[in-house]
Specification:
This protein has two helices and eight strands; from the N terminus they run ααββββββββ. The protein has about 140 residues and is mainly beta. Strand 2 and strand 3 form a beta hairpin.
């Protein structure tokens, strides 16, 4: 006697492997990235200058949802360090984000991975105006 199998969408979903979309993959953002950081053209953003960038992202404790971005720009073929930014993976946004504030500015960096492309934005707080767009490719070169 054969017993018919009836599979519903719900039962099919149970057979799929767990999604990694909402989990930080520590190896995904780590490494060297080379690309551009371009300014949004707006009257309030006139001091901004487009840049060729080189980022090195390394692990940062306490777990794989944290990373440290060492940011540099390339000017006339020379690498100029711009500083470090702590990043935290935000599952709800599927992005690595980091906030920075001083007496002059309060900003948020947000980076998402699209394969071997790092797509980022610089948002100015408190109204989260878009100030920069970042597009960088994974690279194996560590020195320019």
């Amino acid at each position: 006697m054969r017993i018919p199998y009836v599979l519903t969408l719900g039962s099919l979903l149970l057979l799929l492997p767990p999604s990694r979309a909402h989990h930080a993959d520590p190896g995904s953002v780590l490494g060297w990235w080379h690309g551009t950081s371009t300014c949004v053209q707006a009257p309030w953003n006139q001091a901004c200058h487009d840049e060729e960038i080189l980022y090195h992202v390394v692990p940062s404790p306490p777990d794989s949802s944290h990373a440290l971005l060492h940011a540099s720009k390339i000017v006339h073929g020379q690498v100029e360090p711009m500083g470090d930014q702590e990043l935290t993976y935000m599952p709800a946004h599927r992005a690595w984000e980091g906030d920075f504030a001083n007496a002059r500015v309060s900003i948020r960096w947000s980076f998402a991975l699209r394969g071997d492309t790092l797509v980022g934005q610089l948002l100015v707080r408190p109204d989260m105006r878009l100030a920069r767009n970042v597009f960088a490719q994974r690279t194996t070169a560590t020195v320019y």
